[in-house]
Design brief:
single chain; 399 residues; alpha/beta; three-stranded parallel β-sheet; 11 strands; 12% strand
Length: 399
């Protein structure tokens, strides 16, 4: 639902012609998700074309093999063995196209767990991330599908490396990215700490967590319900902070002379800082922190970000049509001008932008088959027999 689509989206945003092969007739099931998953399809499927194929039929599988014969890259995100059962595994397709780079995105790389079913929650729980996120005794999934998205990113990186290798060898290769292994990259710093200290670290959700800085917390402002995160992570930041917020008594305290002493005194420092911040409006609090060059951030909610001045000025929001989220009421977003975040990179030509809206299911089926060399008779047969499903925009009459 996310790992494969995000991998394809990254390549599409960077300029690749990505054809999304969906099951017919209704297309990818993520189109119809609701609730917390309602945004999956429009977020991760921009800049792609769509063809809906019954891959379980011999003719459908043959069509996909024909597409693979002319492709640079295949991305698949099925359970282990699923593509092989369809005759679409790496060995079969590389035999047709030796230059093919075949990317398998899996729950686990090869090993004892490789046949398990994985979700982002599964690998977060078993990989220590949920433990590190929640409060003691209450493991908590992160608020985004971090492993799916980052796993798709690692898949794209591996694809690009394999394409460069192909420039030298002339041959494609099989590359893989694992959801569980992605999670372990995120938890590596905590594993390193556990090895150094000889014990499990306290989770970030533990209010008693021993942070190494005097100020590194979320505070209430004078505006009801409005909070700000503020951090002071160097001694020079601490000095400027105390001077700007009238905490000179802490600055002159001989028991708070270095960062180790300051970190040990966090509980009493936090109470003093909270009392000062509680009397300041949010805008004034942030303006002072920005003038000092301190790390700070308002606690934003997702809907707040559509109007973020930095995202708007930096071309960081793309005008994606969200109506492809079929689970949305009436198929339309509540925020009509909502933009979806772009890739977090800038190239010499600027930010990667929007070339294609998320496709309707099967929207490009006819043109994709034409490009693969199918005759008009073959295309009509595929559609008539239900092997390929096309949208109204791509009906034979319209073509």
């Amino acid at each position: 639902m996310i790992m494969g689509p995000s991998c394809g989206m990254i390549l599409a945003d960077l300029g690749a012609d990505v054809v999304k092969v969906e099951p017919g007739p209704a297309g990818d099931n993520s189109r119809r998700l609701t609730g917390a998953a309602i945004g999956f399809f429009p977020t991760y499927n921009r800049n792609k074309r769509s063809i809906c194929v019954d891959m379980k039929s011999p003719s459908g599988a043959a069509l996909v093999r024909r597409l693979a014969a002319g492709a640079d890259v295949i991305i698949e995100n099925f359970r282990p063995g699923a593509m092989e059962k369809l005759g679409l595994g790496y060995s079969a397709l590389s035999g047709i196209n030796p230059r093919l780079v075949y990317c398998s995105l899996k729950g686990f790389l090869p090993g004892p767990y490789e046949h398990r079913t994985a979700l982002d929650e599964v690998v977060q729980m078993m990989g220590g991330l949920a433990y590190m996120t929640g409060p003691p005794g209450r493991p908590l999934r992160t608020g985004a599908s971090v492993n799916d998205i980052l796993g798709g990113t690692f898949g794209a990186v591996a694809i690009l490396a394999a394409l460069r290798e192909r420039d030298t060898t002339g041959h494609g290769s099989l590359v893989q990215s694992g959801l569980f292994e992605t999670n372990m990259v995120l938890v590596a710093q905590h594993m390193a700490r556990a090895a150094i200290e000889g014990r499990n670290p306290e989770p970030f959700g533990d209010p008693e967590m021993k942070k190494p800085w005097p100020v590194y917390d979320v505070f209430d402002s004078a505006d009801e319900g409005e909070q700000v995160f503020v951090g002071t992570v160097t001694e020079s930041q601490w000095r400027g902070f105390c001077e700007a917020f009238g905490l000179n008594d802490l600055l002159s305290d001989p028991e708070l002379a270095n960062m180790a002493q300051l970190a040990a005194a966090r509980p009493r420092i936090r109470l003093r800082v909270a009392d000062v911040f509680r009397k300041l409006p949010k805008t004034e609090l942030m303006a002072r922190c920005e003038a000092l060059g301190l790390p700070f951030a308002p606690i934003a909610r997702p809907a707040d970000l559509f109007d973020d001045p930095h995202l708007l000025a930096s071309e960081g929001l793309l005008p994606v049509d969200l109506r492809s989220a079929e689970g949305a009421p009436n198929g339309a977003p509540v925020v009509p001008e909502a933009g979806i975040p772009a890739l977090p990179v800038a190239l010499g030509t600027g930010r990667p932008g929007l070339r294609r809206q998320p496709p309707h299911a099967g929207e490009h089926g006819i043109e994709v088959m034409q490009e693969a060399g199918l005759s008009e008779a073959e295309i009509n047969m595929m559609i008539a027999e239900g092997i390929v499903s096309v949208s109204a925009q791509e009906s034979p009459a319209a073509a």
